[in-house]
Every structure is written in structure tokens, then in C-alpha cells.
Amino acid sequence: MKLTIGHLYPDLLNLYGDRGNIQCFIKRLQWRGIDVDIVSCPSGSRIDFERFDIVLLGGGSDREQELVCQYLKKVRKDFKDYVEEDGVVLAVCGGYQLLGNYYKTSSKTIEGLGILDIYTEWSKKRLVQNIILKNPFFLNPIVGFENHGGRTYIGNYTPFGKVLFGLGNTGKSGYEGVTYKNIIGTYLHGPLLPKNPEICDYLLQKALTRKYGGNIRLTALPDSLEHTANTYIVKRFARSF
Amino acid sequence: MKNLRIKLAIYCAKAVSVFIQKLKKGNGLTLPGYVARLIEPHILSILAGMVREKIIVTTGTNGKTTTNSILCHMLKSDGKAVLINETGANMVNGIVSAFVLATGRHGFLDVDYACIEADEAASVHILPLLNPHCVILTNIFRDQLDRFGETDSICNMIQKAVSAVPAAKLILNCDDVLSYSLASKCPNPVITYGISQQIFDGASRSETRESIFCRFCGKKLEFSFFHYGQLGIYHCRGCGFSRPTPDYTAENITHYDGLYSFYINGSYIHSNAHTAYNIYNTLSACAALCSLNALGTDFKSAIESFDYGNRRENTFMINDASVQLHLAKNPIGFQQKISLIVNDSRPKDLIILINDTALDGKDISWLWDVDFQYLLKAKIVTLLTIGSRRYDMELRLKYEDIPCNSASDMRSAIERLTISGTKNLYIIVNYSGLYQTNALLEELQSQEKGGLT
């Protein structure tokens, strides 16, 4: 078996250890004997979504997001088709914002992909701190670090998690991120996947099932270190629950 | 009345400094400054006005402390009296402390030069108070993003700070497109330095680059080659913006027996620099002094006698083992240390300490921007991770298939590895671990010396 992961615009969207998410995908596939191919799609390159089993969209500064926007417009339809056909997407921070209709910054409005009917508005105080979420689908709490000026309003979509500690989408809603079909959009850096291997495996399983069909079960990996690192954050910041 | 207040401010600050040292609580490098400012808010401008010749401020992401030490060493070699702020005390209170504690009994400064390293964010407040003759901008890399937000914010802060002192000469590394782009938006006279020779190896190059898109037209920049990070020789096909011919450069750079030699300003210099980035630091200091007509006649021997192993890169002997302490606080800096370790062909042990205090940056995501895979071939026998984020560090290495373990106590780790290890121990720490680890190593080293006599 083999998965192909498309990393969109790594030359523009590469903030905050996004590479860690790719490294996590790669290693957790390799450790199970599954082949993996990473396709780096720098700005200006032709992007063929049909090749991809997972698409990763990282974070960038407001200025870089504006540059990305002009490239994304050209692939909007292909990207949307990929999503509707259950393609797996992990969009972090700036990438998460770009999935929506627009991002209104302090000075202008950056048009998004419009793949999800959500939007983001900039606010002066950045939301910066460790964050812990709970999603009933996953056994362990989800830990990460948020650092965003934008407030994202997700309407009736299902959030990625309930905020146990930290600020989340708007700082007030009590929820973080968004999920739709096989998309996860989130503000969580850290990077997200290494300390939350359940999420990584969930996305890998979705991608493998989509590609090969049937009921694919990933073999368990020795994740005690991952759990130790996860539990350390949970115990340190959220003693109260 | 004003004079009295200045004297009172200085007196109280000194008393606080003595008190802290007696208590042995911390290094006492910032509280005196805080106290002095409480009593006389203008104390820094007043004392800065007493500097006889010139004030040089160094800011930027990496290389501030080393550059500042080189400046200080070169000026002292030329017979000048120099005031300098201590390692890391580079926020407003630390700098005020340095000035206040340098005053004599009557509250006057007796110095020709002040060489001050300033934190990038604090430079907005510091530069107008010091009104320096020249500002060195070493480079701009991603650093402490939980504090700064994004790299663009760092650029904006520095631009604002430098623009507030328009008469100051801005000395910058033109191989860094972020620094050079920023300069065009500042009213200051600009002097550039750069290296045109490709001298950095693969292990130091770092795959993580800041956005390499033209700040003027948005087109992707083309690079003839990269030094490391985004540093390199660039040009823009869109608007013609390109890396200029530097005003000052180091040429004919050679690496022999672990040390770098090079030409600067017509002199061939056999430096003690083990790492290529120290050529940049040396070059920036020379460029600044040249621009102020202060490059001493014998600057060659001044540079050759400079020991780049300041407190941040100290070597100790403990249990007959060589122990090197290195600071790495951001991906680019860490990558340079990895290159240093890879280039040491002997077997070695390595301890990495990662904390996440406000000083370090609470977000440790940047560990995933470091290319650790080079350590696989670095002949590391034992690798331990320590610090509040030791599990994160261990996890980072697990995802490169690099064997390691975590430990909770630095002292026992050092004792164990110096007694039964390879006798060649490297310790890499991020910011908050530096002071304590350095003190611990000094203690362990002196215990041993005490035991021998």
C-alpha cells in the first residue's frame, strides 16, 4: 500500500513546525511498512488533486496568505471536488482560515477558498497559549499550541474539539477548529500530530480506506512516549478536569 | 534637584545589586535597572549622554552577544574604555543596569564607547533613549513566535525602532533579504556586509526558510545559492530587486584544522572561529567600526586574539571529560550547533535541554523546524533530553529514528556521562537553562580542581 501526501505551498505556508505533521505521517506509515510519497507543491506549480490521498495546508503570515490566495483561486474547483469526494485534508492555522469564505485582516479582506461556509475576522489581541481539546471520538485529549490573531466563526459545522484549556476559534465560543467530511481545520500547532497520534492514525485510516476500500485496520504502534508527552501537557495545564 | 535624583537612582540601583549578589538569588542584572528607572525615568538617556565617543547597538535574531563581544574586544585592544551589557540582559532594565552599575563613585560614566545588545522587541524603546551612532542588524529569523507573532512582526518592530533614530548608520547583512528589504523603508544611511563565497555545509543550511518572496512586488525570489536559512545570493525577476555588492566582505575563506581564516579589509586573519556564522559576526563588527572610523590600526591581531567561546559556548573539564555548553534558541541557531557536532569526528555524548518558560518561548513547535536527521551520522553514543519539554524533544528525535532517553536531573546526567561516557560531552540548552547549566558546570569543574590540590 502507498499514500501520496500533497503539501500545498510549503514556500509560503510553513510557519510553526508544520513539517512535524508531515514527518509524523511519514514515520507512522513507514513504521507500518506502508509506502509514502510527499509531493511538495510550491507556489506556481501545477497541482493535480487526483494524485493525492492527503492534502496538507499549513500556516503563514497575513502577507503570505494574501500571496497564497492568488494561487488558490486557480485550484478552487479541483480542491472542492477533492473534498467532496472524501479527500483527507489537514489545514492548520492560516490554512484553516483559507478554507473559509474570507479572512478580514486589519487592513483588507483576503478571499478564501470558500470550501467551507465559515469566515475569519482579525482582532487586535492575538490568542497565544497552550491549548487542550476534547473530542469524544478520540480517547485522549488533544494538545497543542495556538497563536492566531484571527477569530473563526464556523456556523453550524462540527468543531474539531471542545476547549478544556485555552481559547479556541474565537476566544469565547468554547470550541476549536472545524471538521467536515474528511477535513480537519484547526489552529493547533505543536505540531498537531506527533503528540496526538490518534488524530494522525485517524487521518491515515481515512485516506487508506478511501484509496483501497474495505475495512482497513492500522496495526498499533508503541506510543508510550507520545502519550507521556500528551499527558504531561494535560496534567500541567488542566489539572481541574 | 535633578542631579540629586540621578544620584539617588544610581545609589539605590547599586545597593539592590549588592543585595541580590549577597543573597545569591539570580544574577542581579535587571532589577537594579528597574529600580533606577523608578526613581529617575530618564536615567538611560542621561547616562548615554556621558559616553565620550560612540554608542553602538546590536540587534537581530542570532549573533547579538558574540558580535557585541567582538566589538568590545576590538575597541579595548585599541585602548578604549568600553561599556557593555552582560549576556542576555538585553531588555530595557538590563541595559539600564549595565549603564548604572558602570558609573563611578560620583555617579559619572568614564567610558569612550558603549556597545549594547538589544532585544528586537525592546529596541523600539531602547534606540530612541540611547540615540546610537550606529545600529548593527545581524539577521532576522523565526524566533520566539509566541512572543513576536510571526517573522513579519519582527521586521516591522526593527524597522520602527531603527527609523526612530534616523541619523544612526544601519549596518546590515545584505545576504539576508529580510534585513535588506527592511532597510529600504528606513531613512537611515545603510552600510552592508555579506559573504559571496559558499562556505556553509549541508548540515548547517537548514531547510526551514522564511518566505523568500519579494517584499516589493510579491514574486518569488531566485537564489544562486543559500548560505543557511534564507541567507544567500538572491534576485527578483519581477522588479529587479537583488542582493547588492556588499560594502564590506570576507574573502578567500578557508577552513583548516577546525578554524576559519579570511581576508577582511585587506588583512588576512587567522581567527579562532570554529563556525562559519562567526565570520558574519566578525564582519559585522568590522563594518560597524570602519563606518565610525574606529577600526584600530592593529585590528588583525585584535580579531586573532578574540576567543569566540564566550559564556554561551564554554568548554569545561569535568572528570577528565571535555564538556561544551552551547545555546540554541531557535531553529537556525540550533542547526548551526548540529553542524558543529557533525563536524567533530570523535564519538560523543549529547544532552539537550528544552524548557518552555516565557524567556524561551512557550511554543516549542520550532523543534520540528530543525533538521535533526544529521545527528544519525554524528557518532553520538548517548543522547539525553532534559527540561520541562524533554518529552517533546525526545519525541522529535523518535520521529527521526534517533535513539535517546529523557532524564530529569542535569547534575546526575553530567556526572554519569563525564565518568562513563565518551569523554566528549556536548550540552545544548535553550535560553532559561543557560545560566543554571553554566553555573552547574563551573561548580563541577571547580570541585574537581579543589579535589586535586
Distance between the termini of chain A: 41 Å
In CATH, the topology of chain A is named: Rossmann fold
Kindly report how far apart the N and C termini of chain B lie.
Answer: 56 Å
The percent range for helix content of chain B is 25-40%
Jot down its keywords.
heterodimer; A: 241 residues; alpha/beta; Rossmann fold; 6-stranded mixed sheet; 12 strands; 29% helix; 29% strand; globular; B: 453 residues; UDP-N-acetylmuramoyl-L-alanine:D-glutamate ligase; Protein-Tyrosine Phosphatase, Chain A; 2 domains; 9-stranded mixed sheet; 16 helices
Write structural notes for this entry.
The complex is a heterodimer of chains A (241) and B (453). In chain A, 51% of the residues are buried. Chain A has helices at 19-30, 62-84, 94-98, 197-212, 224-237; strands spanning 2-8, 35-41, 54-57, 88-92, 102-104, 109-111, 119-134, 142-153, 161-165, 175-176, 178-180, 183-186. In chain A, helix 1 crosses helix 4 (197-212). Chain A has a 6-stranded mixed sheet with strand order 2-1-3-4-12-11. In chain A, strands 5, 6, 7, 8, 9 and 10 form a 6-stranded mixed sheet that branches. Helices cover 29% and strands 29% of the residues of chain A. Chain B is α/β, with parallel strands linked by helices. Chain B folds into 2 domains: 2-304, Mur-like, catalytic domain (UDP-N-acetylmuramoyl-L-alanine:D-glutamate ligase, 3-Layer(aba) Sandwich), CATH 3.40.1190.10; 313-452, Protein-Tyrosine Phosphatase, Chain A. Chain B is 38% helix and 20% strand. Chain B is built from 16 helices and 17 strands. Chain B has helices spanning 2-23, 31-39, 43-48, 64-77, 92-101, 123-130, 145-148, 151-163, 177-183, 202-205, 277-291, 299-304, 331-343, 390-398, 410-420, 431-452, and strands at 54-59, 82-84, 113-117, 134-137, 169-173, 190-194, 221-226, 232-236, 248-256, 259-264, 267-270, 313-318, 321-327, 348-353, 380-386, 405-406, 424-429. In chain B, helix 5 links the parallel strand 2 (82-84) and strand 3 (113-117). The longest helix of chain B is centred in the first third of the chain and has 22 residues, at 2-23. Chains A and B meet through helix 1, helix 2, strand 7, strand 8 and helix 5 of A and helix 14 of B.
